[in-house]
Amino acid sequence: MDLLIQTIKEEGIVLSDSVLKVDSFLNHQINPRLMYEIGKEFSNRFKEDRITKILTIESSGIAPSVMTGLQLDVPVIFARKKKSLTLVNDLLTAKVYSFTKQESNDISVSNKYLNEKDRVLIIDDFLANGQAAIGLAEIVKQANAEIAGIGIVIEKGFQNGGQLLREQGLRVESLARIHSLDNGEVSFIKDGTKEAVR
Amino acid sequence: MDLLIQTIKEEGIVLSDSVLKVDSFLNHQINPRLMYEIGKEFSNRFKEDRITKILTIESSGIAPSVMTGLQLDVPVIFARKKKSLTLVNDLLTAKVYSFTKQESNDISVSNKYLNEKDRVLIIDDFLANGQAAIGLAEIVKQANAEIAGIGIVIEKGFQNGGQLLREQGLRVESLARIHSLDNGEVSFIKDGTKEAVR
């Protein structure tokens, strides 16, 4: 997605060979117009898939998800990383290990909002090792719902999450795929190839 | 805001005399169309106020904020409740006590995204004791930015947050104001009055 790649080039900050900071438009400050365009792109890619629900995880997944939900006209559910006092019963839960934070968290979704009739689009901001997406997929399975696909804003193509998910037969649509962050520079994987471009 | 009040009446669950659960459209599952309408309403109420930034707090403030940001065409910043590994330096922080969770949290915003030229609209999902809004206002002041107003989706009019903020001279716009949750029923404060209506 050109606008997204352009924004990453202009505003992304490479903190190390594996960490890209996109705090100016996605993870802390949010660019609502860009989120709208991201929602439009996900919506185009999944519009034939009879999606009934979008499932994401707090907090950075919410903005792209809600813009996609607006355009597909379906509800968005965000999994919680921490148990809420008013959300205690009948939870679907999965364990997610964060390599960045080096800790394991239970994520949870109320079973009221997912059932066997649902076709779920999972959306997240980043795909690196795939742990969050795998946890969300696990929750969809617990609800006996179907996973229609996974929409990722930024995939780190040099980490193995995308491969793990695709090997499970899941359809993963990433709007920007990063080839490498070596030497402080972002290079992208060209759409439909494994070729690197700057 | 009629659509919001209607949705609260239909889907809100009164858990006690002080707790209203709106997990089906705002706090866990999100209704994107309703969020769009909420964004339109905030945008109408603040469109003359030369807003440059919206400030909210993760997670439930993000959806209404990003829809408002889309329509006012300004960036949204969400304060974090937990420190991120890639967000460590130059933080503006405030302490927020949550009566619901009975714990105190530091909330933080990078000082890169707020400065003395900003006119900030603070948005949050709920206003009860006002602690989150006061913390966000504190952060705006630390950045020497101006608070243009506070937009609240649901105000619990029977708790003192609204009064605290208005006594500080802050403009608070709440889209639904709850008069009471007594006897398991939601009654609202009629716009522009202190009168209760069902």
Automatic annotation (TrEMBL), chains A, B:
Metabolic or biological pathway: Purine metabolism; XMP biosynthesis via salvage pathway; XMP from xanthine: step 1/1
Q: What molecular functions are annotated in GO for this chain?
A: xanthine phosphoribosyltransferase activity
What Pfam families does this protein map onto? Pribosyltran (PF00156)
Q: Which positions in this protein are listed as binding xanthine?
A: L20, N27, K156
Q: Which UniProt keywords apply?
A: Cytoplasm, Glycosyltransferase, Purine salvage, Transferase
Family membership: Belongs to the purine/pyrimidine phosphoribosyltransferase family. Xpt subfamily.
The name this protein carries in UniProt is: Xanthine phosphoribosyltransferase
**Organism placement in taxonomy:** Bacteria, Bacillati, Bacillota, Bacilli, Bacillales
